[in-house]
Amino acid sequence: MSAARARDRGAGKPEGGGPSFPCARCGRPLRRAAGERPPKIRCPRCRYLIYDYPRPCAGLVVVRDGTVLLLRRRHPPRRGFLDVPGGFMDAGESIEGAARRELREETGLELGRVEPLGFYWDRYFLKGFGWLPTMNFYFIGRWRRGEARAADDAASAEWVPLAQLGGRRARYAWRHMGPLFRDMKRRVGAAR
User: How does DSSP assign 78-120, residue by residue?
Assistant: First the structure.
């Protein structure tokens, strides 16, 4: 059997583990290879190379009188876990613009001046694709007026005392939230 024929014979079967998805060029089912660095996927049929680039995300930490606004996630992944208003950036959007859009969509709130807070690596599970790396950019701002109403991806909105943030009992959605809360407490403490 020729090499091309042998290659095409297995064309309908994805290689590797985890969920499969179609090659962008030829449609052959593919799977991501675990642990490959840098993360990339090469189609064995057409040799198309897909780099598994991190996805940019933006969020806004809202502080009010010794409390911070947290949302309970409405949808998987991490449904029911506590999160900060935020999400994936849209193409052509600024980081701050994405953070403000997510806050408005998830709570109805708008803030005046905000300041950069930090950058944190993490990962996100996308059904049909698996885990993908995320770059999470956060801003911090002070609440002035308005009532936070859970909408879009948020099941509820809660004002949580700063002293309770980062506790082991709470179920936070992402690994980077511990360092995020640590940095946020330092920033709020320095501003007092």
Answer: STT-EE-SEEEPPTT--HHHHHHHHHHHHH----S--EEEEEE
- State CA 128 to chain mean position distance: 16
Total-model pTM? 0.79
* Averaged pLDDT in 10-residue chunks for the chain of 192 residues: 40 55 88 67 88 90 95 93 96 97 96 96 81 93 93 93 84 94 88 61
Class of domain 55-191 (CATH, top level): alpha beta
Identify whether 22 is preceded by a cis peptide bond (ω within 30 of 0): no
Contact in structure between 71 and 107 (CB atoms under 8 Å): yes
Number of Cβ within a 10 Å radius of residue 7: 12
The residue extents of the domains of the chain are: 3-51, 55-191
DSSP 8-state class, residue 192: -
Cβ–Cβ under 8 Å, residues 97 and 163: no
What count of other Cβ atoms lies within 10 Å of the Cβ of residue 107? 22
Cα 38 from chain centroid (whole Å):
20
Nearest C-alpha neighbor of 62 from the set 144, 149, 153, 179: 144
Question: 10 Å Cβ neighbour count for 99?
Answer: 30
